[in-house]
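Sample 3 of the quickstart, ligand flavin mononucleotide:
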Amino acid sequence: MELLDALKTRRSIRRFKTDPVPETAIKELIEAARLAPSGSNLQPTRFVVIKSDAARAQLTEASPLPFVSQAPVVIACCVDMESFGGMGTRARELKEAGAFNDTPLEKMDPDAYAKRKPMDPAAAEGYLRLNAAIAVDHLTLRAVDLGLGTCWIMMFDQEKVKKILDLSENYRVVALIPVGYPDQSPKPRPRIDLEQLILKEV
Ligand SMILES: Cc1cc2nc3c(=O)[nH]c(=O)nc-3n(C[C@H](O)[C@H](O)[C@H](O)COP(=O)(O)O)c2cc1C
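Result:
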């Protein structure tokens, strides 16, 4: 499928068929997320694939939206708050891969880069969530390509979801993504005009 077609046909799907989602398709979704860019190539996003009836039933206590747990699969998208600890390694990998060749970054010292002043915790979490959003967007567009429907869900109780999924303290759940074959064909949702998006040309 052409990227433009996927961009145009993706919808938030809130009604799913009960047909199971093949394991290979789930792997394809996560693979699409894996290819996403991330700041300093930190790759802080992690996923929990929720398939069992028991776990999905528990999710009904963590989100007010019943369609979430009605989907045959729910992917919990998380970030690892400890990802910044890998900054030196990631920077070194990038350098070794030639990412900075012939640029002013070529002389960058990965260890010194990793020792820069850390962001304050709120900014750090925002930064990691931003990275997760890009990964989720990759995933949702690949889903369209595979004939699957998804919906971003941020209406959930963070602590309840973490408890259900038995996630350690260093993880934040960014979104729940129900995944399944769509049982609805929604029309395009309204968008503001292009002219309104462009503040100005300078
Ligand atoms: C960051 C984000 C959070 C969202 N959270 C929810 C949510 O909690 N519940 C829900 O039903 N839809 C949620 N959505 C879906 C939006 O309502 C939807 O993207 C928007 O209405 C446009 O519709 P479309 O995705 O079909 O184009 C969310 C979307 C985004 C990008």
